Amino acid sequence: MNRFLALLVGLTVLAGLVVGVGCKKQSAPGSEKIKIGFIVKQPEEPWFQNEWKFADQAAQQYGFELIKIGAMDGDKTLAAIDSLAANGAKGFVICTPDVKLGPAIARKADSHGLKLISVDDRFEKADGSPMEDVHYLGISARKIGQAVGGHLYEQMQARKWDPAETAVCVVTFDELETARERTEGAIEVLIEKGFPKERIFRTPEKKAEVEAAIDATNSLLTQHPEVKRWLVCSMNDNSVLGAIRALEGRGFNADTVIGIGINGTDCINEFQRDKPTGFWGSMLLSAKQHGFQTAEMMYQWIVEGVEPPLDTRTTGVLITRDTYQQIFKEQGLAE
Ligand code: FCA
């Protein structure tokens, strides 16, 4: 009897082991990874490549699979969401190519039961107001713009430029709230400091790209051949770089132009040139927070049910040709 019992116990333990191993196999790391999408509007821009790089780090740390998709227009964006759903993703982070797509994107995400976090560019309702119910992580746009304005003014004074011979070229992209806030913030501070309002010129770009900024700046320069020195600001590095290229086309250079960008990721080649150009500095944003933190928030939302805050804002810090290497080192960004 005892022997029989022992055998029974032995068999039960064995069976348990087999079942246990079987179960383990099913949930072994790698076989059932959570999938999270990360859609960006301009995959060629270093800013977005950095966001992806940091989101990848979150994927590695937490063991989920990151599906990166570039979507430059509405059709691509909506198709990307369908394909994420078909692939079994549970949610996605997105910088939309057009904030007006917000309601359509939110509806599509909802229809597939996908969680959604918007990054950088906040979704807008049909009436232009922000979709405050969609989780968002973006920059403190007005504050960062104000910092640009402050540094431009300081640099002008440091060079003892006569404000009467100087003008401001503001390449605008007012369709986008985060862009408008940045340029309006810069203008606000320049005026506050005493820069003559009538020589702050706004010129709209059709897209936030170098070529479009070149066009926008050229049309402004044609109207103002009298200006001897220029301060330049815009929504990001590429837009300021475009302005600098247009100014160079008319003989302006580091002695007659002070440009300050935003991102701090798309101006590294510029800082690495042999000679300084009119692109003097940039407000370095935290691509790490935008990429890593949004992906991390999405993962924790899916797995632990921790809903992220509805609105998270990040800050920036000035970098120049002389300081960027040191600051990158301090922030662990150096290659
Ligand atoms: C927008 C811009 C990007 C970057 C980001 C934070 O999406 O297009 O270049 O500045 O905001």
Low-confidence blocks of residues: 4-28
Q: Tell me about the biggest sheet?
A: 6 strands, parallel
Task: Give the helix/strand class.
Answer: alpha/beta
Give helix % range. Answer: 40-55%
Number of helices: 11
* Head-to-tail CA distance between termini: 71 Å
Number of strands: 12
Structure description:
This protein is of the alpha/beta class and 335 residues long. It is built from eleven helices and twelve strands. It has helices spanning 2-27, 46-62, 74-86, 102-111, 141-158, 177-193, 210-223, 237-248, 268-271, 287-304, 324-330, and strands spanning 35-40, 65-70, 91-94, 115-119, 135-139, 166-172, 200-204, 229-233, 257-263, 279-285, 311-314, 316-320. The strands form two sheets. It has a six-stranded parallel beta sheet, with helices on both faces. α3 runs parallel beside α4 (102-111). The longest helix has 26 residues, at 2-27. It is elongated and about 65 Å long. The chain starts with a helix and ends in a 5-residue tail after the last helix. The chain binds alpha-D-fucopyranose. Alpha-D-fucopyranose is lined by residues 45, 47, 95, 120-121, 139, 178, 208, 236, 262-263, 285.
